[in-house]
Amino acid sequence: MGKSMAVNAGSSTLKYKLFQMPEESVISSGLVERIGLNDSVVTIKYGDGKKFEETLNISTHEEAIQIMLDQLLKLNIIKDYNEITGVGHRVVAGGEIFNDSVLIDDKVIDQIESLAEYAPLHNPAEAMGIRAFKKILPDIPSVAVFDTSFHTTMPAVNYMYALPYEYYTKFGARKYGAHGTSHRYVSQRAAEILGKPLEDLKLITLHIGAGASITAIKNGKSFDTSMGFTPLTGIMMATRTGDVDVSLISYLMEKLNITKMDDMIDILNHKSGLIGVSGVSADMREVEAVQADNKQAKLARDMYIQRIVRYVGEYVAELDGVDAIVFTAGVGENDFTIRQEVADKLDYFGIKVDPEKNHIRGVERDLSAADATVKTLLIPTDEELMIVRDIERLK
Ligand SMILES: Nc1ncnc2c1ncn2[C@@H]1O[C@H](COP(=O)(O)OP(=O)(O)O)[C@@H](O)[C@H]1O
Ligand SMILES: CC(=O)OP(=O)(O)O
Ligand SMILES: [Mg+2]
């Protein structure tokens, strides 16, 4: 009994879902998009199909949380914050400390903050969100659900960097990955849709949003993933480089007269990726709107696709075959053109998408063409559902 709230702070978004428990029915869901960009959009769904929408400039996750909390009361979604009896927060980095979700106490908040360097765009904002909720609801159970915990099953051969070994044992220098809650959710749904036990499947899950990562899943477990020590590496993202030669970084620092590594990393995290190459926008929709007449925008989009294709190819090899690939997250769920072009480039593997089935947004569907030997699925992610289940499990 009661209402449970799942809070999901992404790099450019803040999402929440308020669930009636134990039914797991969604009372209200909200999304603040484009945090830190101009014209942030707040969308809140509630009641019987009611929708609140507002466009304003929101520069931090702290502001986004405040707006969201105010609207819960203003829109009469709840009459009092005390109606909420459990809160779960998505946290990106859990390092090697957290291989499962935990009940949050002061020590856990400190540990999440101590892992800030493992996810600089996320953990500080997420710790802040946890504190904001603790302030208004100090006595209800709250749970942290880590992106990294799904990836703790990766074998050392995949999570180790070829650096001196003691950097791992002394400093925790290894690949941790991210988006684990999403990769876990869509892999479970994929098994249900395919009607096969997850343990028997080889899957490649493509979580492509503002942050983006690809995971190879073997026997239901994360086997390899594209993000690294932090969510900076792997495929190209909205504002992040993805993989880059680190020697180039020191060369560029000299050229740009940058003396602090943090300043350089800030460029790699915030000024690169789609926005960096296109010079237009971090938002795929805006890049696509101008690509016909803008060479850089077209190049940015082509690079974005190419890197996805590259990782899928790598993971087909690592998994020694694949049963299905799954598209999810902001771009993966909404952009049929990206899905189509990615699939077209992978047809050697037997990945083939039916253009008609693919012409859709945001619904679960098998997109595979009749002659595909590898399935392509569209599965909207639901990190919030996973989070709320962990509140129930742990409270
Ligand atoms: N219709 C669409 N077409 C292309 N891209 C879209 C569309 N809708 C959303 N996106 C992309 O999805 C991104 C947000 O993805 P999401 O996974 O929700 O964010 P986050 O990484 O912050 O969790 C946006 O930046 C936008 O580029
Ligand atoms: C880890 C990460 O990049 O998350 P998001 O896509 O939500 O920003
Ligand atoms: Mg996200």
Annotate the secondary structure layout:
Elements: E1 2-9, E2 14-21, E3 25-33, E4 40-46, E5 50-56, H1 61-74, E6 84-91, E7 102-103, H2 106-114, H3 123-136, E8 142-146, H4 156-159, H5 166-171, H6 180-194, E9 202-208, E10 212-218, E11 221-225, H7 246-256, H8 261-270, H9 273-278, H10 284-290, H11 295-319, E12 324-328, H12 329-334, H13 336-345, H14 355-358, E13 365-366, E14 375-378, H15 383-394
Bound molecules: adenosine-5'-diphosphate, acetylphosphate (UVW) and magnesium ion.
Search tags:
Nucleotidyltransferase, domain 5; 21% strand; binds adenosine-5'-diphosphate; 395 residues; binds magnesium ion; 14 strands; single chain; globular
Word description of this protein:
By secondary structure, the chain is of the alpha/beta class. It has 15 helices and 14 strands. Strands 5-4-3-2-1-6-8-7 form an eight-stranded mixed sheet, with helices on both faces. Strands 11-10-9-12-14-13 form a six-stranded mixed sheet, with helices on both faces. A hairpin with a 2-residue loop joins strand 10 and strand 11. The longest helix has 25 residues. It is globular and about 55 Å long. Bound molecules: adenosine-5'-diphosphate, acetylphosphate and magnesium ion. The site of acetylphosphate has 11 residues, from loops. It catalyses: acetate + ATP = acetyl phosphate + ADP. One of its GO terms (biological process) is acetate metabolic process. Its EC number is 2.7.2.1. It is an enzyme of class 2 (transferase).
